[in-house]
C-alpha cells in the first residue's frame, strides 16, 4: 500500500494494520504520534506490548511467563476451555492474567 492509498483510506474511514495487514475501521487503528501514517490494529498493539514487556523482563519473570504459556497451550490442546463447568473459569483467568 502506498502513501497515497493510505491517505485515501484514512479519508474514507478505513485503515489497515502495518503489522498484520488486515483491514480495519479507522477508529480501531492506533496511530503513532511521530508517524501518523503508521496504523496498528488493537490485536497487534496488545501483541507488541507483550513483546516489549518480555524484552524488559527479568529471568524469573520470563520463566514464569513460559510456564504460563505452556499451561495455556495444554488447556487449548485438550479443549478444557470449551467445557461447560470449567471453561468459563479458565477463560476468565486467561483474560485477567498479566501476560
What does this structure look like?
It is a single chain. With 99 residues, the chain is an alpha+beta fold. The chain has two domains: 3-44, no CATH class; 59-96. The chain contains four helices and four strands. The chain has helices spanning 3-11, 42-56, 59-78, 86-96; strands spanning 14-16, 23-25, 29-31, 39-41. The strands form two sheets. The chain has a two-stranded antiparallel sheet with strand order 1-2. The protein starts with a helix and ends with a helix.
Give a summary of the structure in a few sentences:
By secondary structure, this protein is of the alpha+beta class. The chain contains four helices and four strands; from the N terminus they run H-E-E-E-E-H-H-H.
Label this structure with key terms.
two-stranded antiparallel sheet, 4 strands
Distance between the termini: 32 Å
Choose one word for the global shape.
Answer: flat
Q: How many structural units, i.e. domains?
A: 2
Report low-confidence residues grouped into runs of 5 or more. none
Largest sheet: 2 strands, antiparallel
- Average pLDDT works out at 80
Structural class: alpha+beta
How are the elements arranged and paired?
Layout lengths: L2 H9 L2 E3 L6 E3 L3 E3 L7 E3 H15 L2 H20 L7 H11 L3
Antiparallel strand pairs: 1-2, 3-4
